[in-house]
Write a structure and sequence with these properties.
The complex is a heterodimer.
Chain A lengths: L1 H14 L11 H10 L2 H18 L1 H4 L31 H37 L1 H15 L3 H12 L3 H27 L3 H8 L4 H38 L10 H8 L8 H28 L5
Helix pairs in contact in A: 1-9, 1-10, 2-12, 3-5, 3-12, 5-6, 5-8, 5-10, 5-12, 6-8, 7-8, 8-10, 9-10, 10-11, 10-12, 11-12
Chain B lengths: L1 H25 L7 H5 L6 H10 L6 H13 L13 H36 L4 H15 L2 H15 L15 H35 L2 H8 L4 H38 L5 H10 L3 H29 L1 H4 L1
Helix pairs in contact in B: 1-12, 5-6, 5-8, 5-10, 5-12, 6-8, 7-8, 7-10, 8-10, 9-10, 10-11, 10-12, 11-12
Classes of the chains: A mainly alpha, B mainly alpha.
């Protein structure tokens, strides 16, 4: 009986978060404390939050209409009037960079949501049920992983048609196998733990064990992976828009801005520098945050 | 040992089969009648009818797949709608260019990534370690097409040292070829170097704290021998698998890099095919790429098996 009590309490620790005294912190609280101590991760988190704020308040931050063209201000170098200069149609690059953050963040977050919504339940099912279900899911995952990520995304976006929604779908589906595989692997280690056995012994139905007892315990690596996946998706969105498969002109996107900028690299280099720098800053911050989260959740990791 | 090889080889066949199904099914994403889409803007009814018949569009999906995979197994990946040449010929024509780019990039990645990983592990928490980690983070976070544009800006526009774009065959002009390939190869190799550096560092850290390394030190061997001969040898075995896995990101990256530097390789073939709605080429190239990727991973597994005596038993 004691075993069952301990086991259920352990599950409760992850799932229900009992009130913690300073000496008895939940795993999540311990992880947060470790994360706060990592300067790189905190800088990353602040920059990501700043970009989210910029995207949300784009209408107030951008000084000009990102679509307004001006033939009298074509390819003007950065100045006090145009902080990041103007592009080949006389549009304000700063305003376009500010508005472009929406496309990047929207695709980054949405596509990872799609991957998780598809990948986590499938991985959970495969790992928990095992047998031929696991066999089929694993083979399909292997097959999808055999097609290089960006090539699969490009092909899907091409067949679906070029627009931002299709980019989200293409990137979300292309990244799904990674989440399936990760969830499955985690479930396989968690499902043999004593507290799962205990949960089963007290008569919980399978769906309840899977979602209430297994899922919360496989979340930490999934959170780390999703942070890194958002970074990858932002680069991939920029790549697809750079190729002309993502955000369609004249709507601003960092990738499509770089696509145009490459034609004017000798006469207007600022057109290429700022959108690229924005992608870099956002992605490096997400990577720093992801690395920090990994170390915070798994202190053994170096 | 033979059983292992047969088992691995047998596992590859269903994977390739499933990949082919996925790629074939992608065509179903096309809205409406594929023949109408493929017929182009004028949508000549004769062309539509011809395509219907040629693609067996009136047959059920599994039957159509059967026709398609049957052709593929006979080496017929279809025909390009735009240039009316067999997809396989196009692949044969473009493959050497991307293969050269991939080989050069991998070379650059190895000569940067592995030494940086070693230095970083040996001098853990030193300035070198932080520097190597910072460079790796930079490599992982820079979109390669942006890096390409920046390099063109520096080396072609400002300094005038290297050509901004274009490709010269190495058989015509080796110097010109290397001058054209060095920037794209660096752009591609730099991201992989970051991955290699991180893995080499963590593998080396693990190995350096192993008992046999302590024994080697206790025997009085100098640090250089301990690091390079005893530690590195064992730390490097997983790099073989990693190298094969990174080949996927190399091919993905090549799509963009070839676009930036106007290199007529595989990546450009896919992008051009996508924009010209030349779907047979897209399908053929993706199938070919995935098969090569699967085979490389298989070879890496075999190589790993030979390099690691513990697996041989």
């Amino acid at each position: 009986m004691k075993l069952i009590d301990t086991g259920v309490a352990a599950v409760g620790g992850a799932a229900a978060t009992p009130a913690a005294t300073p000496r008895e912190m939940t795993p999540a609280q311990r992880a947060w404390r470790r994360l706060v101590r990592r300067r790189g991760a905190m800088v990353g988190l602040c920059v990501v939050l700043a970009f989210i704020l910029i995207a949300l308040c784009a209408a107030w931050i951008a000084p000009n209409d990102p679509l307004a063209t001006s033939w009298s201000a074509v390819r003007k170098a950065p100045s006090s009037a145009f902080l990041f200069g103007t592009d080949e149609l006389g549009r304000d690059v700063f305003s376009r960079v500010v508005w472009g953050s929406r496309a990047s963040l929207l695709v980054g977050f949405s596509s990872v949501c799609i991957s998780m919504l598809l990948g986590v339940p499938i991985g959970l099912l495969a790992g928990y049920v095992g047998g031929w279900t696991d066999g089929i899911v694993s083979r399909l995952t292997d097959a999808m992983l055999a097609v290089p990520f960006l090539i699969l995304a490009i092909t899907m976006a091409a067949f679906l048609g070029p627009n931002l929604t299709n980019v989200m779908i293409a990137l979300g589906v292309s990244a799904t196998p990674v989440f399936i595989r990760l969830t499955r692997a985690q479930v396989l280690t968690v499902k043999v733990e004593d507290y799962i056995e205990a949960a089963r012994a007290v008569g919980n139905p399978h769906w309840r064990i899977a979602f209430r007892h297994v899922l919360p315990n496989v979340l930490p690596p999934l959170i780390v992976q999703s942070t890194l996946a958002i970074a990858a998706a932002i680069i991939a969105e920029a790549s697809l828009s750079f190729l002309g498969l993502g955000q369609q002109p004249p709507a601003p996107s960092w990738g499509s801005m770089l696509n145009t900028a490459k034609n004017y690299v000798d006469s207007a280099p600022w057109m290429a520098i700022w959108p690229g720098l924005s992608i870099f800053l956002l992605v490096v911050s997400l990577n720093l945050l992801g690395d920090g989260l990994r170390d915070a959740f798994d202190p053994r990791h170096k | 040992m033979l059983a292992y090889f047969i088992k691995r080889l047998a596992a590859v066949i269903p994977t390739i089969f499933l990949v082919s199904i996925i790629i074939f099914c992608l065509q179903q994403l096309l809205p409406g009648d594929p023949a109408v889409v493929l017929a182009g803007e004028d949508q000549d009814p004769n062309v539509v009818a011809y395509l219907h018949q040629k693609m067996h569009l009136d047959a059920p999906l599994p039957v159509r797949y059967g026709y398609w995979i049957g052709d593929v197994m006979h080496g017929d990946l279809g025909e390009s709608m735009r240039i009316h040449s067999p997809v396989l010929d196009l692949i044969k024509e473009k493959m050497p260019v991307t293969a050269e780019l991939a080989a050069l990039s991998m070379f650059i990645a190895l000569i940067i990534g592995i030494p940086a990983g070693i230095v970083s592990a040996v001098a853990k928490n030193s300035v070198w370690d932080y520097l190597a980690n910072a460079i790796a983070l930079w490599g992982l976070s820079t979109p390669n097409f942006w890096l390409g544009i920046l390099l063109i800006l520096l080396f072609s526009v400002n300094l005038g040292w290297l050509p901004a774009s274009g490709y010269v065959s190495p058989f015509e002009d080796l110097r010109g070829n290397l001058a054209a390939m060095i920037m794209p190869a660096f752009v591609l190799g730099n991201a992989i170097a970051a991955v290699l550096m991180r893995h080499t560092r963590s593998a080396m850290l693990q190995v350096l704290s192993a008992d046999y390394v302590r024994t080697a030190r206790a025997k009085g061997l100098n640090e250089r021998t301990v690091v390079l001969k005893h530690a590195l040898r064992n730390a490097l075995t997983p790099i073989i698998t990693l190298g094969a896995l990174e080949f996927g990101s190399l091919l993905s990256g090549a799509v963009l890099t070839e676009q930036v530097f106007s290199i007529p390789g595989f990546g450009k073939l896919i992008v051009d095919a996508v924009f010209n709605r030349d779907y047979a080429v897209v399908q053929g190239v993706v199938l070919f790429t995935s098969t090569v990727y699967i085979m490389l991973n298989l070879l890496a597994d075999f190589a790993y098996f030979f390099v690691n005596p513990r697996l041989r038993g």
